[in-house]
Amino acid sequence: MRVPQHIITFSLIILFRILPADSYSDPVPDICRDSHGNLSGNVYKAPPENRDLVDSINIGLLVQNNKSTAARQAAELAISIANQKRGADETRFRLIVRSMEGPWGTGSRQAVSLVFDEHVAALLGSHDGRNAHLVEQVAAKSRIVFISAWSGDPTLSQAFVPWFFNSTFNYNQQANSLYGEICINKRLEKIAVVSDDSYDSGSMLKCFLEQLKNNGKATPVQFVYNRTGNDIKGVINNLKGEDFDCLVLFARPPASLNIIWQLRVQNLQQPVYCSMIQLDDDELSGCDVMPYENVTFVSRINFSGKPGISFREEYRKKFGTYPGVVAACAFDGMNLLIEAIRKAGTDREKLEEELKEIRYEGVTGLIQFDDKGNRMGTPELVVVKNGIPVQME
Q: Residues 6 or more apart from 45 whose CB is under 8 A from it?
């Protein structure tokens, strides 16, 4: 049962610094960026022809950095489609994007600015778990809905914030799927794990190790890749000296691609398993998964179903490239908010209640939430064959 808002306490107090009001102009275009398409902490003035958007409903999107185009484009597409299909008496939606790139604490300041300067109806996040915790605290203090559409950090729901929802599967769920395939279906015993030193990689590793421990399995051989040390060859050399049946990889691209390539060069043919972290569109050139040939991933993206086919084609027509997993998750997250706002309006408590009861069939499958805001269900596995992710039976 979710703890009521009035008894929620936090040990960490964030000192919110509201950015100067004169840093912003209103109204803004459907997506807030400069004339070169770059994201910024500032909101840019809309051209005169867009001034009728002043009466629209604002939805805030927080992305990891200025290179995070996949989530931004997917959210923009969702907003565009919703506005095209709106009824005569329905208000337009407007997307306001903020990058969380910068010194520690930038994320909380950007979230606060979206809430109090831009008066957004809700927040959508496509960023790592560390930043998600900052946004979650803003959501709790300002009583505004926040959907996390990328990080699967399970501790986000353990704060019992009723305004928090995770539209992707958390790392406990992903670890459970990996364990089931590796240890139950394939009956592999000797496991090696390579992770990097990022926050979410560490969180995913912790969940997987706990899954093994809880099921009485031996602790796997572990190697940590330092992203600043460029020691991939050292990791591969260490793996060559180990006896293992499979490799579980929690390093982000492009390091994960390099590790897999080095394994093949060294003729290490053990099967490789990955979480969703490795499918970051913004780190994969052209969303190309060909280098992941024969690698098994946790994923529930269905691009062959009706929602998936439509999304892929609309995305390609608008942006000239096909979407990946980050884009699909952001698209579903934004559509969750749009559907809930259409039904409940912008009253924050009614919107929260609507999301608790929602059943949304999206590109990533059926989305509904438990009483802690976690996505319900079990993530599936796909294996890359001829450059195409194929669902495992």
A: 25, 28
How many residues are present in the chain?
393
- As a whole number of angstroms, the distance between CA 210 and CA 154 comes to 13
Secondary structure (DSSP) of 75-128: HHHHHHHHHHH--TTSPPEEEEEEE--SSTTHHHHHHHHHHHTS--S-EEEES-
CA 157/CA 161 separation, integer angstroms: 7
Positive or negative, the CA dihedral 283, 285, 289, 291 is: negative
Model-level pTM?
0.85
- Residue 365 reports pLDDT greater than 80: yes
CATH number for 171-299 (one of 1.10.150.530, 3.40.190.10, 3.40.50.2300, 3.40.50.2000): it is 3.40.50.2300
Helix (H) or strand (E) holding 132: helix 129-142
pLDDT band at 53 (very low <50, low <70, confident <90, very high): very low
Report the top-level CATH class of 5-169+306-367: alpha beta
Do the Cβ atoms of 133 and 110 come closer than 8 Å? no
Q: Are 304 and 281 in contact (CB under 8 A)?
A: no
The pLDDT of residue 211 is above 80: yes
Residue from 46, 24, 37, 45 nearest 114 by CA: 24
pLDDT in tens, 219-275: 999 998 887 656 788 888 899 989 999 999 998 888 888 889 888 888 889 999 999
Burial 22-32 (b: 16+ CB within 10 A, else e): eebeebbbbbb
Average pLDDT, the chain: 85
Torsion angle (degrees, nearest 10) of CA 271, 199, 168, 354:
170
Strands (E) across 186-236 are located at 191-196, 221-225
Cα separation, 54 vs 75, in Å, equals: 19
Write out the E strands in the chain. 57-63, 93-99, 123-126, 146-148, 164-166, 191-196, 221-225, 246-250, 272-274, 296-298, 360-362, 365-367, 381-385, 388-391
Residue 175 CA to residue 198 CA, distance in Å, equals 17
Domain with CATH 3.40.50.2300 in the chain: 5-169+306-367, 171-299
Compute the half-sphere exposure of residue 266: CA atoms within 13 Å on the CB side of its CA. Answer: 18
Q: What is the pLDDT of residue 113?
A: 97
- What integer pLDDT is reported at residue 39 of this predicted model? 42
